[in-house]
Amino acid sequence: MNFDEILSLIGGFGKFQKILYIWICLPQIFLAFHMLVSVFTGAVPPHLCHSTRPSADTASSNFNFSLLSDPNRWRELSCTTSLNHSHAVATGDGHPSGSCQGGWEYSTESFQSTIVTEWDLVCENASLNNLGSSIYMFGLLVGAVMFGSLADKYGRRIIILISLTIQTVFGVGTAFAPNFYIYIALRFMVGTSISGVIMNAFVLGTEWTGSKQRMLAGIITDYFFGFGYIMLAGVAYLIRDWRKLQLAISAPGFLFIFYIWVLPKSARWLMANDRKEEAWELIRKAAEMNGKPLTKDVEMCEVYKIEEKTKVKRKHSFIDLIRTPNMRKQSLIVFYLWFVNVLVYYGLSLNISDFGMNIYLTQMIFGLVEMPARTITLFTLNRSRKISQLAFLAVGGSACLMTIFIPKELSVIKTVLAMIGKFGITASLSIIYVYSAEVFPTVIRQNGIGLGSMCARTGGVLAPMMYLLRGISPHAPMILCGLCPLLGSALTLLLPETANKPLPDTIDDVEGSSLSCTAADNLQQVVKTAEKTVGSVLPKLSDIHSSRLLIQAKKILQDPSHPGNPLFTTLPSED
Fold it and tell me: Which of 108, 282, 366, 508 has its CA 20 to 30 A from that of 418?
């Protein structure tokens, strides 16, 4: 009896698991807040240089920033035009003012203050704003590496609690940052904590959930991230000052202190670390809460311990991901898919001001898109992982590429296309979690997903920097957001189909599993023949021999293609 069988006895998704998912999902809302708040706290309002000449005061008081409502228009003029040339701005004949010596004047139509207006992160300092976002994303990469290994050593629950504490303390501290450099240092720490919560909350939930409900349970956490995405638009609309907004999304984290008493440990992790008394205590509690108490016979079963100790006969490392041809090809493709999904997802999410519509409305629309995008995967995944992945990547990439052909005056159409692109990429990002877990064999699955997550975080680091390419061409970021997913869609054709197929357990399974559909059908026929043969022979044997043959038969059915098994070579033909 393994742990999944224990879960099925006590209820794979009963009252205990449902309450657990409430505790897991609540922080997801605040994770979305922290991940996307820089859309508002780092927003760049229309601005012009406050000239040192006396006439500038008059020009400042009379200048109408609505003349610069088009983002491309004010980006073009803001760094070359001073306020005393307001008439020139209106007519499009601004004159270069050089480096601004008299300070900057910012529109207050959409924001009372942002980090840009407070620390003048415009023109020659504009790249610092993108750098700050990239450093935050780098924090996610560091957190994924650090908290992933710590959770394997000390447990999921304690790392979640520590990460929530870091997120709250440093998030509140960010609201009081005295300068930009301390601000990005504090945001880096918040980023590390985000990875700690995301990874370990997901793992804690799946380790307590039955195999049949895991896909649905994983999507539930994504929904709450989407709720946070939508809610952030409303919170930011009501709070236009960046410090107050940062405080508003961080301070409620102190309420999670009650998780010390309600968040359970992972019984599966306790079992694997030979802390079986604690594990059984939690299992009994879950069984009673689900209304399926365990019998003493089940609790005394020690097969699980023996199975866990003998499951893996040799150590594997990340080198095995690239050591053999098929495994190397599949690994590199999956790593690229992780990278491109996160690159484009955050490339679109963090730069919604480029589409020309109201930033708050665009944020809400992009958040609403998350819901159907994640829901549709529930219906497509069971049909085909491969076709689902390449189709959504193609949709996302094509829509992003089409935005470059839309005139800037048609901002609504451009936003609709960007929304379709976001839909495709969001669905693709949900699929890659499931797909990659099925592509990698059991012996190196954790290594594969871990390296895939690192590639994803690398995409997150580069996403804010991608928009520095506007200096080359205003269309360059969206061209990148279009071509990269289309390349990923083409590469997906080289991956195997994994829907409704048994999971590969060893690297040999991957290297020998490049079977055609006919070969796979033949293999299933062999298994059926073995079942019939064993069923006809068993009644004729003594109990002892029956038991031995049953054990051998189970081995055959688990690995029917193994040529070294003597029973395999002696199986009769179907006729």
Answer: 108
Superfamily of domain 1-45+110-311: MFS general substrate transporter like domains (1.20.1250.20)
Contacting residues for 122 by C-beta, under 8 A, at least 6 apart: 44, 47, 78, 79, 104, 116
Q: Decide: helix, strand or coil at residue 237.
A: helix
Distance of CA 517 to the CA centre of its chain: 32
| CB atoms inside a 10 Å sphere around CB 61 | 8
* 14 DSSP assignment: S
pLDDT in tens, the chain (575 residues): 567 778 888 888 889 989 999 999 999 999 999 998 988 998 888 877 765 444 444 444 445 555 455 555 555 456 665 544 444 444 444 444 446 776 788 887 888 899 998 998 887 788 888 888 889 989 988 888 888 778 878 888 999 999 999 999 999 999 999 999 999 999 999 999 998 898 788 778 877 887 677 667 767 888 898 899 899 999 999 999 999 999 999 999 999 999 999 999 988 888 877 888 888 889 889 889 988 887 665 555 544 443 444 344 456 667 878 888 888 999 999 999 999 999 998 888 877 666 656 788 888 888 888 888 888 888 888 788 899 999 999 999 999 999 888 887 787 888 888 889 989 999 998 888 778 877 887 667 767 777 888 888 888 888 887 877 777 787 888 899 999 999 999 999 999 988 777 767 678 878 874 443 344 444 455 555 555 555 554 444 444 444 455 555 555 555 545 554 444 444 444 44
Q: Are 200 and 206 in contact (CB under 8 A)?
A: no
> Domains of the chain: which residue ranges?
1-45+110-311, 316-514, 516-569
Task: Give the Cα separation of 221 and 217 in Å (integer).
Answer: 7
- Based on its alpha-carbon atoms, the radius of gyration of the chain, rounded to whole angstroms, reads 28
| Distances from the Cα of 489 to the Cα of 313, 350, 394, 425, 434, angstroms | 37, 23, 6, 11, 16
Assigned CATH topology for domain 316-514: Growth Hormone; Chain: A; (1.20.1250)
For residue 299, give the amino acid letter.
Answer: E
Tokens representing 318 are 């990340």
Burial class (CB in 10 A: 0-12, 13-18, 19+), 268: buried
CA distances from 399 to 214, 354, 419, 428 (A): 31, 15, 8, 14
Instruction: Give the DSSP H/E element, type plus range, for residue 52.
Output: none
The Cα 531–Cα 380 span in angstroms is 32
Using the structure block, give the residue that is written with the tokens 């030979």: 274
- Tokens 């505790």 appear where? 23
Helix (H, G, I), strand (E, B) or coil at 267: helix
Rounded to two decimals, what is the model's pTM? 0.72
